[in-house]
Amino acid sequence: MSAARTIVYGISQRLQALPFFHDFTFRENQSHQVMPHELPYCAVYQLPEVSNSDGDWNAADPKFKSESIIGISVILKNIESTELEDALDGAFDVITVGLYTDAEFMALKTPSEFSIEGVSRMRRQTMFGTLGSTNETPIGELRLEMTFITRYDYPPDIRDDLNLVVLKTLYPSLEEAPSVQQVTVPMDLVTGGPGPGPYSMENKDGSITSDSASSETGSNDGSTSRKPEPSR
Questions:
Q1: Which runs of consecutive H residues, i.e. helices, occur in the chain?
Q2: Are 44 and 132 in contact (CB under 8 A)?
Q3: Which helix (H) or strand (E) holds 104?
Q4: Dihedral angle at the C-alpha atoms of 18, 20, 23, 28, nearest 10 degrees?
Q5: Over its length of 232 residues, how does the chain's per-residue pLDDT go in tens digits?
Q6: N or C: which end of the chain has fewer CB within 10 A?
Q7: Domain boundaries in the chain?
Q8: How far apart are the first and last CA of the chain?
Q9: Packing angle between helix 3-16 and helix 81-100, nearest 10 degrees?
Q10: Residue 107 zone, left/alpha/beta (φ > 0; ψ -120 to 50; rest)
Q11: By the 8 A CB rule, do 114 and 103 touch?
């Protein structure tokens, strides 16, 4: 799920837990056709999202700094104009205080599933109109838009990880190496330890001497034996 959609559900869950909204009908989309019997009503929905490159767009894996606009609509039945304006203004205060002071939601407390870096912009508007098949229900609506800053990171899907390297000595120099016994050692890059053996030592005559995959190997009686050191 995208960061924007996660924020939508996070806002809805938190608003439903507030006493102010205890008898509201909630929806998490903008397409729902509101009916008079659903009042009071609150919808939380995703609006346009704009993502810009985070860093050099052509120098690394795709990373984006995103501005995700989340809309909140609060609809109340129109009782008296001044009281309705005050009620919608109160809803605005409840929403902003309830969300912005929530340390877990604003990612001020770790770990957080929302990854919100901040809120860059907020816009509100109060609308008045009617609902119903015959427009018989006068309403007032608070429309609030919040712009949340999040990030998207798309690291490459590496399917051929380098897990094992094999080290081979060339002592004391490339020219003199054939005359000196050399050592070949596999290294496991996942564990940071020796890779699957066996070790091998190339003798002066070109023959190969193998040993176990560790510098010390255990025996059944608990004793240990060390791998022979290469001759110099």
A1: 3-16, 81-100
A2: no
A3: none
A4: -60
A5: 888 999 999 999 999 999 999 999 999 998 898 998 999 999 999 999 999 998 888 888 888 999 999 999 999 998 777 789 999 999 999 999 999 999 888 875 444 566 788 899 999 999 998 887 677 789 999 999 999 998 888 888 877 778 888 888 888 888 888 888 888 888 888 877 776 665 555 555 656 566 554 444 444 444 444 444 444 4
A6: C
A7: 3-153, 164-212
A8: 61
A9: 120
A10: left
A11: no
pLDDT of 218-230, one tens digit each? Answer: 444 444 444 444 4
Fold for 3-153, please state it. STM4215-like (3.30.2000)
Verdict on whether the full-model pTM lies above 0.85: no
Residue 152: strand pairing partners: 64
CA-based angle 94:96:101, to the nearest 5? Answer: 100
Residue type (1 letter), 73:
S
pLDDT attached to residue 136: 78
CA angle 149, 14, 113 (to 5 degrees): 45
- Give the integer Cα–Cα distance in Å for 89 and 74: 10
